[in-house]
Structure formats: C-alpha cells, structure tokens
Design a protein that fits this description.
single chain; 122 residues; mainly alpha; three-stranded parallel sheet; 7 helices
C-alpha cells in the first residue's frame, strides 16, 4: 500500500508542477479530487496560483457551489473571481493568456524592484 500511496502522490505532484494553467472538464469524484487538491495548495500558498478554467459553466456551478463556500467564509470571493467558468474555448483561452501575461508582468516588476542597480546600468 505504501508504494501505491507514494506513486499516487508523485503523479499528482508532477501533474501540476510544470503546469501553467488548469482546464477542468465535467467529471466525477476523481476530477473533483484533482481540482480541489490544486485549489487547496493554492489557498495554503503551497503551490503557485494557476489560472483555472472550468469548461461546462452550468455543470460546475451547480456541482461545486463555490458561492456557498464563500458565504460560509471557507474561501473568498477573490478566489472565485480568479476562476473562469465558461462554455467557450475562446473565453477560456483568453482568460489563461490574460492571467499568464499578468503573472509575467508581476514577475518582471518584482525583479526590477529587487535589482535597481541593474536597471540604472541599462
């Protein structure tokens, strides 16, 4: 059993380690397990915040009830707003691209603040 548990953890870890975004299609308990794992790690600041796109807006909004969770103070509205619920591939793509561009801009700004000497040299 230990080997199976270790393999399962490793698969889940590496599945998201190099990811730049998460796209979730309608699914069952296993799909919910995977996305809740990522959302939990993001909420606890143990994993980078990735853009999350839920394909099948009506399915996911009814199935997950994030608004109810926010009302119970177990997640924030900002966390919900950082997700995209859509039926449009283009909307999902645009959401991911916008998030990745914003992350890159923030990283560049942070690097600029860390090394002001380098900026003066340029």
């Amino acid at each position: 059993l230990q080997h199976t548990t270790d393999t399962f953890f490793a698969r889940k870890y590496w599945e998201l380690y190099m990811s730049q975004a998460v796209v979730v299609s309608p699914g069952g308990v296993g799909t919910c397990d995977e996305i809740f794992e990522q959302l939990t790690l993001q909420q606890c600041k143990k994993a980078p915040t990735l853009p999350v796109v839920f394909v099948g807006a009506d399915f996911w909004r009814k199935s997950l009830g994030f608004e109810h969770m926010a009302g119970q103070n177990v997640m924030t509205q900002a966390e919900i707003d950082a997700m995209c619920f859509t039926d449009s591939p283009e909307e999902g793509r645009d959401f991911i691209v916008a998030n990745l561009k914003a992350r890159l801009a923030a990283q560049r700004e942070k690097a600029r603040k860390v090394s002001p000497k380098r900026e003066r040299e340029e």
